[in-house]
Design brief:
With 170 residues, the protein is α+β, with helices and mostly antiparallel strands. Helix content is 35%, strand content 34%. The protein contains five helices and seven strands, in the order E-H-H-H-E-E-E-H-E-H-E-E. The longest helix is centred in the first third of the chain and has 16 residues. It holds the Pfam family Acetyltransf_1.
């Protein structure tokens, strides 16, 4: 497996992976219109281009052999009201395509993301995770994240999903 930092040229690739994994996760019991409204905004080319130009936002793409398997997105120095610490990273996206589940892709990408955050002088990492996403919750708690709060994640004007706030100090 190889992991590299994403560039502006990766916008379309990031959008494709993001849309695919978001649909796989949320369409299970979220109205399609709400999921599509979020996707349209979050994975728009202008949004991704702006993020990839921001020095405080880092995307990392993982390949399994020669196939793209997923990506992570971190934002540096993003505080959270539930965490009393400075210089912490928000893990904003952590997406692994379903066909690569169970192949150690998530663990490798996670470890790379944590090392990158530490190298950037961060002292912890936090994220929101949908309370229905048991696979993700198990992954994060197995990697020593602790539930520190609750967040109502707004998908669209008519839909929000309950999320836990998880935190890992280092």
């Amino acid at each position: 497996m190889t992991i590299r930092k994403a560039t502006i040229e990766d916008c379309e690739l990031i959008a494709t992976i993001g849309k695919t994994t978001f649909l796989e996760t949320y369409l299970v019991n979220t109205p399609k219109a709400a999921v599509e409204a979020f996707i349209e905004k979050a994975f728009a080319m202008d949004t991704l281009t702006k993020e990839l130009r921001n020095p405080a936002i880092h995307y990392y793409i993982i390949y399994h052999s020669t196939k793209v398997a997923g990506y992570s997105k971190i934002e540096l120095n993003i505080p959270n009201q539930n965490i009393d610490a400075a210089q912490i990273t928000k893990l904003d996206r952590f997406y692994v395509l379903k066909e690569f589940h169970g192949q150690n892709v998530g663990a490798q990408l996670f470890n790379h993301t944590i090392v990158a955050s530490k190298k950037l002088q961060q002292h912890g990492i936090w994220l929101y995770v949908w309370i229905e996403n048991k696979r993700a919750i198990n992954f994060y708690t197995k990697n020593n994240f602790k539930v520190v709060g609750y967040y109502d994640f707004v998908l669209s004007e008519t839909r929000s999903n309950p999320n836990d706030v998880l935190y890992l100090e280092y």
